[in-house]
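Last lecture ended with a question: if I hand you only a sequence, what can you say about the shape of the protein? Today we answer it with a concrete record. The protein is Large ribosomal subunit protein uL11. Below, first the input exactly as provided, then the predicted structure, then a couple of comments.
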Amino acid sequence: MKTIDVIVDGGKASAGPPLAPALAPMGVNIGQVVSKINEATKDFAGMKVPVKIHVDPKTKQYTIEVGSPQTAEIIKKEAGIEKGAGNKDAAAGNVSLARLVVVSKAKRNSLGKDLKETLKEVLGTCVSMGVTIDGKNAKAMIKEVNEGKHDSLLKG
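The predicted structure:
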């Protein structure tokens, strides 16, 4: 079994690089693989998505494993921005705390020990990107989360 790691645009992978050069020597149907990747990543349109393709070169059988986009990619989509602010003190965009709780639940498998810790990591990414939360500075929002002011959002 061989594994190919690539990062693709959600729902828009193509039969060109980086997929074709990696898959061609293995003899798999590249168009079929691309189609399956696009179907599996369509919900991440506009984001960079990590994908692993596991190929058995002898049988030409393959499986596709779609990872979670980077937290910054998800925040950019939620805030409707193309990139974060060059200066973390400048506001690049705004997102609601409720949406960041949803993001935190999705990222839960890879980050903090509980949802609150994961939310604080996501908020930390907002700090470095210059994204505000419900119009507030991300550092101020982290302080509020630490104080328990938003615990009701973290239940359920």
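Comments.
1. The chain has two domains: 2-66, 71-154.
2. Residues 2-66 form a domain with the Ribosomal protein L11, N-terminal domain fold (CATH 3.30.1550.10).
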